[in-house]
Amino acid sequence: MIVDTLKVFVTVVEQSNFSRAAEILNLSQPGVSLHIRNLENEFGVKLLHRSSKQVKTTEAGHILYARAKQILSQYEAASEEISLLRNEVTGSLKIGASFTIGEYILPRLLSQFVNQYPQVDVHVNIANTEEIAHGIHTHELDIGLVEGETEYPEIQLNPPFMEDEMVLITPSGHPLTSLRNINSSMLHDLVWVFRESGSGTRAFSDQFIENLGLRVKRSFVFNSSQGVKEAVIAGLGVAMLSRLVIHKELESGNLQSIQINEQRLSRNFYVLQDPKSSLDTMAVKMFIQKLRQFENE
């Protein structure tokens, strides 16, 4: 098939070496040479200058390389569109999600996705934002859904897919809940219950305290939002959590919220990807498409 021959030619040009191209394509070196000879015979021109050190394109080879890249790109696009017509999206999808997203959003999203694409083998890892970013960095994960930014410059941070409201919560009957107008000075010297370092929720809490210049009397650290929530219900202190996590407890009265001068606190949820490893897979593309649909719904 001409597409296979063009793939061989493009790989040889990009690697500037027949042996390396053969390794990448899992072909023998004579097999690679045969593909190139067939192309040169077909066009009636020399396409490559060969030497013991490297391979360079001739003028004709340069033209063919540019066109071959376009042809291969169009072929791949056509293949994907035809697969979609048959609703055939296969392969594996390794998703990482921070705790809030993984426990309160991802299950509903995945239910829709696997019903539409049952042939995709989905693996889920729920951890804090820092751990998910590391999984993308080491190529252990195809896609990450997180609550904060990442320190890895090579990781692509896609536009936010959802806004998440954050709530300052107290145990039921806390003295602050009886006050109508609360300003930042009233939040000094409180006992706080935090998530662990590396958590997006912890990063938001730390930034909130820093922005208001609050003094913290004492703090406790839990490595899950459920632990933080139960600690506040038990009267251990106050905390900052997503409304997704505590909406049932607010409705039941087990927790109460504090609003500071009618401020609305929020953060964004992001999609993390490594463009070198995951952007070209159909499973990832379809999952992101489903994610955007889920956001609109």
From TrEMBL:
<feature type="domain" description="HTH lysR-type">
    <location>
        <begin position="1"/>
        <end position="58"/>
    </location>
</feature>
<comment type="similarity">
    <text>Belongs to the LysR transcriptional regulatory family.</text>
</comment>
<dbReference type="InterPro" id="IPR036388">
    <property type="entry name" value="WH-like_DNA-bd_sf"/>
</dbReference>
<dbReference type="Pfam" id="PF03466">
    <property type="entry name" value="LysR_substrate"/>
</dbReference>
<keyword id="KW-0805">Transcription regulation</keyword>
<dbReference type="InterPro" id="IPR005119">
    <property type="entry name" value="LysR_subst-bd"/>
</dbReference>
<dbReference type="GO" id="GO:0000976">
    <property type="term" value="F:transcription cis-regulatory region binding"/>
</dbReference>
<dbReference type="InterPro" id="IPR000847">
    <property type="entry name" value="LysR_HTH_N"/>
</dbReference>
<dbReference type="InterPro" id="IPR036390">
    <property type="entry name" value="WH_DNA-bd_sf"/>
</dbReference>
<keyword id="KW-0804">Transcription</keyword>
<keyword id="KW-0238">DNA-binding</keyword>
<dbReference type="GO" id="GO:0003700">
    <property type="term" value="F:DNA-binding transcription factor activity"/>
</dbReference>
<dbReference type="Pfam" id="PF00126">
    <property type="entry name" value="HTH_1"/>
</dbReference>
<protein>
    <submittedName>
        <fullName>LysR family transcriptional regulator</fullName>
    </submittedName>
</protein>
